[in-house]
Design brief:
Blueprint lengths: L2 H16 L2 H30 L4 H10 L3 H12 L4 H11 L1 H14 L4 H8 L4 H10 L9 H26 L9 H14 L5 H16 L7 H27 L1
Helix pairs in contact: 2-4, 2-8, 2-9, 2-10, 3-9, 4-5, 5-12, 8-9, 11-12
């Protein structure tokens, strides 16, 4: 198959997906949260531009590292010439939540081919995960869950890439007095609050905040790793306690 024919096939499949009701519902539900995604993407783009990384490399990074929090965590370490293992360990810990997301998605997408599931894993994000779980707390028989996922994920992903590339290109000309850092913090806080739906998640968040403050004096932003490790430990203990409680009852 030639390259033109391949692109034509992809375009036909994309148009067919866009006409399906579940795909449109997912895209429609993602629009309100897209404002927060765009705000955070703009802040992340400005931060990448201010790091001294060239525009082509910064855009390349935004495409392959589809995780704003990981980018923001890695940039100061790269600027401080931290060891590569510290950069990798930090981004790995920041992105551990996507492993939890993938475990939760598994019952919904297990019937799909492995290649398709791997491709869809790139589109996982905080906002579309929150939307998906709110829409489908449990798998619905004979429902095309992947269509809803793709609708919300593709719209959120497109808004993110447009916003972060805009921030990268315009970053040098945006003055610090605009307070974009504070806006980004508020956007991240709003996204975080969507995940606080139980006592265990609240406990993990509080412990992570306390650990990050207590370990603030550590070099190379290692307090982030301490906070993540503490939050994961609390979450695991809470899940085990809840499982034992259910087994007992």
């Amino acid at each position: 198959m030639s390259l033109v024919s391949r692109f034509a096939s992809i375009r036909t499949q994309a148009l067919a997906y866009s006409r399906r009701p579940m795909f449109r519902e997912g895209a429609r539900d993602a629009v309100p949260m897209g404002i927060g995604v765009a705000a955070w993407g703009l802040v992340a783009g400005v931060a990448v531009a201010k790091s001294g990384m060239g525009v082509p490399m910064a855009i390349f990074m935004s495409l392959i590292v589809y995780a704003g929090s990981a980018q923001i965590a890695a940039l100061p370490l790269i600027a401080a010439d931290a060891p590569m293992w510290v950069v990798w360990a930090t981004t790995l810990c920041v992105n551990l939540r996507f492993m939890a997301f993938s475990f939760h998605y598994r019952p919904y997408f297990l019937h799909l081919p492995r290649r398709q599931r791997i491709a869809m894993s790139y589109l996982m994000g905080d906002t579309n995960f929150a939307l998906f779980i709110r829409r489908f707390p449990e798998p619905v028989p004979h429902c095309r869950h992947e269509e809803y996922f793709l609708g919300s994920a593709l719209l959120s992903g497109a808004m993110w890439q447009v916003a972060i590339v805009t921030g990268i290109v315009a970053g040098a000309g945006i003055p610090a007095s605009w307070g974009l850092g504070f806006a980004g913090t508020m956007a991240l806080l709003a996204l975080t609050c969507t995940q606080l739906r139980s006592a265990s998640t609240w406990a993990a968040a509080v412990v992570a905040a306390c650990a990050a403050i207590a370990a603030y004096a550590l070099p190379l932003k290692l307090n982030i790793l301490v906070a993540i490790a503490a939050a994961v430990a609390v979450g695991v203990l809470a899940d085990h306690a809840r499982a034992r409680s259910r087994a007992a009852t």
